[in-house]
Amino acid sequence: MRQWGLTFYIRVNLQGSFHTYPDVGGPFPSLQETHNAIDRHLEGRWHPKLRMGPDDNVSTMDKVIRRCLYWPDGRIKRHTKSSSTRAANKRMHQFIQALVDKYNDDHNLLGDLALKLKDVLHYQPICENHIWYYHLNFTAKTKEADGLHSTSDNLFFVEVKRMGIGNYEEMLFSCFCMVNPDNGKPCKGCTNNGTVDMKHPDTDEYFAGHLDAYLPFGCFGKWSDSDDDDKYVKAREAKLRHMYELTVMRFACLAEFGCLEIINFCGLNACTTPVCT
């Protein structure tokens, strides 16, 4: 959901029902009904000041600025290290919960026998031969084989391969196993990109991370300078207003040279779709 800056994960169980992460109800009998439920969920999250129509008493400039500054639910569009880390942690927890539920479903692990996700420890994207993978470490509660109904926290490693491009991608796990935290092995893909504490199984149990490669340059955006939301919004709004005014002045100057028809066409685009960085 790029318009919202949100990610939804959809899991299909063995009976063909669809589950969503985060949960928006269900399970659903079809993918279309799943999409409809997500749309209804998002529809209820619109912030009143951002649900703007042609009859609203809001100037075109203010509409453009609001859409550049905020997501539809009112969250500020920015890229601080702290906010991005929180969002990534929340997203990865939902993602790994979907993987754990898939594993439990595939292996018919029900009730006390099911893995129960506890903590997400590490996650690292890896790009090799133009294919993206994720390496993940997390802890989960598992039932001990002692007949006493006791449980213990165990460390797991998962490798996921990302398939597809655009709004919809398929995630396939190629490795899902328990690892020993004391002798888990590193891989080049994680170590080269800063996740040196990731624990892996033997190298022949997963695909990515064997090449001496790094993430593509520029795949992560630049951090904002400050965590102060009010300060950021005021500075960003002033910059956007300045950009807008320069655009209007530019096309006004072109009008003096007989380009009015082009201005009327381009002005709509210039007013409604400025570049937001």
Any chance you could write out the topology, listing elements then pairs?
Elements: E1 9-12, E2 18-21, H1 31-43, H2 60-69, H3 81-106, E3 116-128, E4 131-143, E5 151-163, E6 170-178, H4 188-192, H5 229-255, H6 260-272
Antiparallel strand pairs: 1-2, 3-4, 4-5, 5-6
Helix pairs in contact: 2-5, 5-6
Protein name: DUF3615 domain-containing protein
InterPro entries: DUF3615
Domain DUF3615: 97-201
Brief write-up:
With 277 residues, the protein is α+β, with helices and mostly antiparallel strands. The protein has helices at residues 31-43, 60-69, 81-106, 188-192, 229-255, 260-272; strands spanning 9-12, 18-21, 116-128, 131-143, 151-163, 170-178. Helix 2 (60-69) crosses helix 5 and helix 5 (229-255) packs antiparallel against helix 6 (260-272).
Note down, in words, how this protein is organized:
This protein is of the alpha+beta class. Among the domains are: 1-45; 79-223, Nuclear Transport Factor 2, Chain: A (Roll). The protein is 34% helix and 20% strand. The strands form 2 sheets. Strands 3-4-5-6 form a 4-stranded antiparallel β-sheet. Helix 2 crosses helix 5 and helix 5 (229-255) runs antiparallel to helix 6 (260-272). The chain is globular. The model is unreliable at 259-277 (pLDDT under 50). Pfam families: DUF3615. This is DUF3615 domain-containing protein. InterPro entries: DUF3615.
